[in-house]
Design brief:
DUF262 domain-containing protein, 3 domains, DUF7834, 19 helices, GmrSD_N
Length: 398
């Protein structure tokens, strides 16, 4: 770990450290309710009022932008001018700032102004963390910021890789943040989970539930490192098996695979629409099997593009096979299914040079360990008919 400075500072000292707010920083999202609650909390604080952590990588603000802007508005309402908010605001941001400015002024008028001023200046503080090394910032994201809203992996990765764009143009930073924030966080987090699942299976390891503590999995190498493999990755198209490169490459890589995952959903809707509608994602066992299906389909689409559509029934059948043996499929059981298969479908996809090789592979041999399992008197797994038996099973169980 590099040099890390941690100290409690007043809001006035915090704001004095910030000369401007870069255009590429996160969109200002605080609404009137959050702003009103913050002002009220400050006003009624009788003693020290901690307002979470603010994290800097050297002199670059990594986490805490929304609080900085809101506190700046409060200081302006009291006649102070820290910092100058030199940033080109979107219409939505301007609307929020104007509304929060109105709320702050009105709220302060409802309290004793001198008392509020004293509380803001003397009682309210943040824990300031300044890390010399970018990777050390990861260790200090906590759950005590923004009045208890916990940072998720999407927040952490955006901040981490944005700071790695220090040498990139302002436009690239703005465009990367704008596109990142155009996606639903749930969609980003689902992609990260599928990627993590694939990476572990490709290494012969079991997958596990992904949390923000596993963000390090998506921490890559700086693009200026003088390694031959870094140059190869930068010079080639994206690949799910490629090492991660920090900064803009990571953002573009994520955007590429969000689009590809959406294509997988479209292909699935075209190829197996009836079955897809009957998968119950509120059922944990079915959800796990469906995630395996998506991970394998994404991996296949990464290699074979839209030709992957002809493989989707085989991938679905393989992914849901554990449910024919036991209606309760734990993650441990799913890991065993993938890692202990006589011939893993993941490896068949990985080492096949043509989609036809995967399509011709005998699924019964792949599921040979389940050959004596009968399903409702229909015979062994190797004789299961996709269109009839799988469709019937889903219809009955859903």
């Amino acid at each position: 770990m590099g040099k890390v400075t941690i100290k409690d500072v007043s809001i006035q000292e915090l704001l004095s450290l910030i000369n401007h707010i870069p255009q590429y920083k996160s969109v200002y999202t605080w609404d009137g309710q959050k702003t009103s609650e913050l002002i009220k909390d400050i006003a009624i604080a009788k003693e020290s009022y901690p307002l979470g952590t603010i994290i800097f990588h050297r002199d670059d603000l990594v986490d805490g932008l929304s609080r900085v802007i809101t506190l700046s508005l409060a200081f302006k309402a009291l006649g102070y001018k820290y910092p100058e908010l030199t940033k080109s605001w979107t219409p939505e941001e301007l609307k929020r700032i104007k509304e929060n400015w109105r709320i702050i002024k009105k709220s302060i008028e409802g309290f004793d102004k001198e008392s509020f001023k004293n509380s803001l200046l003397n009682n309210t503080f943040v824990t300031l963390i300044i890390a010399e090394e970018l990777s050390d910032c990861f260790s200090f994201f906590d759950s005590g910021h923004e009045r208890g809203r916990e940072l998720d992996m999407a927040d952490i990765l955006k901040a981490y890789h944005l700071v790695s764009m220090r040498g990139d143009s302002e436009k690239d930073k703005i465009d990367s943040v704008a596109k990142w924030e155009s996606f639903d966080k749930a969609e980003l987090l689902h992609l990260f989970m599928l990627q993590s699942m694939l990476w572990h299976y490709l290494r012969g390891e079991g997958a596990y539930p992904l949390t923000k503590e596993h963000a390090f999995l998506f921490e890559g190498v700086e693009k200026d490192r003088d390694y031959p493999y870094v140059k190869r990755v930068l010079d080639t198209l994206y690949c799910l098996e490629s090492p991660m490169i920090n900064g803009k490459w990571f953002f573009d890589h994520t955007f590429h695979y969000i689009d590809l995952l959406r294509e997988v959903y479209k292909m699935t809707e075209n190829e197996i629409p009836t079955v897809l509608k009957r998968v119950d994602l509120n059922n944990p066992s079915q959800e796990r099997c469906f995630d395996l299906y998506l991970a394998l389909a994404l991996f296949a689409a990464d290699r074979f593009g839209d030709k992957t559509q002809i493989l989707l029934k085989k991938i679905f059948k393989y992914s849901f096979a554990p449910l024919l043996e036991d209606l309760s499929v734990t993650l441990s059981k799913l890991n065993e299914h993938v890692l202990d298969s006589k011939s893993s479908l993941l490896n068949v996809i990985r080492y096949s040079s043509d989609v036809g090789e995967v399509d011709s592979y005998n699924l019964a041999l792949m599921l040979d360990g389940m050959k004596n399992i009968s399903f409702r008197g229909k015979g062994p797994v190797r004789d299961i008919d996709f269109d009839k038996d799988f469709d019937m099973w889903l219809k009955e169980e859903c």
